[in-house]
From TrEMBL:
UniProt entry tagged with the keyword ATP-binding: yes
Top-level taxon of origin: Bacteria
GO molecular function: ATP binding; ATP hydrolysis activity
Record's protein name: ABC-2 type transport system ATP-binding protein
CDD domains for the chain: ABC_DR_subfamily_A
Keyword Nucleotide-binding on entry: yes
Family label: Belongs to the ABC transporter superfamily.
Species annotation: Hydrotalea sandarakina
A Pfam family annotated for this UniProt entry: ABC_tran
PANTHER family per record: ABC TRANSPORTER, ATP-BINDING PROTEIN (PTHR43335)
Amino acid sequence: MSVEVKHLVKQYGQQYAVNNISFHLQKGQITGFLGPNGAGKSTTMKMITGYLMPDEGMVTVNGIEVQRNPIDAKKMIGYLPETNALYYDMYVCEYLYFVAGIKGIKNKWQEIKKVIELTGLQVEKNKKIAQLSKGYKQRVGLAAALINSPEVLILDEPTSGLDPNQIVEIRNVIKQQGSEKTVLFSSHTLQEVTAICDRAIIINEGKIVADDTLQNLQHQKNDIATITISLREQHLQPQALQLPEVDRVEMTAPGTFKLYTRQEQLVRKHLLAFALQENLNIIALQSEQQSLEEVFRKLTIGS
Ligand SMILES: Nc1ncnc2c1ncn2[C@@H]1O[C@H](COP(=O)(O)OP(=O)(O)OP(=O)(O)O)[C@@H](O)[C@H]1O
């Protein structure tokens, strides 16, 4: 089951909440949808699920155009909105029964039993939704999204506000679902995306700034390293360390330099040879890779 997002645009007044974005989601892949606050994640998800009409562009789910045929498309989608709207006065089972009814399920109790097990709601299933903790309310939302085994899951910040144990459990449910479904889930944190995704789409100010497998993003991460070298000799100028394969040199203190390079190993060798040749005394030599967070920051705030 594939999801095709083509040239989606949503504008509020002068502001583009989503500005001409396109991507393709495929079965068996969990895609993380990442971006800072206000980047356009929820707006995109609302358009994918047919809850918001785009100004331009279209979404198809397994060839069915969501905007033209929302009812057929919605049958294939399980959606957990960011504001997980539940009826607090209902009991958990009562609410799930209600959702199963809306979805036109025949064997309602059989389906409810299945989603309760999947989301670990057994212990709380007889309570009123208002009595549940935030994590369990989130599970009810997820259970509702899973009713009728939709092939596509669109989950808007499913772990937001949960404690670390609950986060791990919800992530496990998503992981398990991801092996046989098409899953898009949004998050602010790279750590989360790294934990369960195969691929990440990074959005900023309504535009996609990266769409790649985590493996490739890791390579991008490894692209630039910094090497900090401290020498006993304090008279050296930065130009002296502008060795081959060094992109840039900064002097951070007398005798201490920060070198930016894409060939960290080679530059370390050059540095040692240079120090030997010039009879310099190295006090410290330290390399640092860019973290994925830095890649994310670079892509979303350009620093
Ligand atoms: N109904 C609306 N009217 C006006 N502006 C809106 C509306 N809905 C969203 N926006 C704006 O569109 C931009 C994108 O919002 P959206 O909720 O999609 O971001 P997000 O990436 O989901 O953010 P967050 O991570 O904070 O939930 C924001 O600047 C938001 O203020």
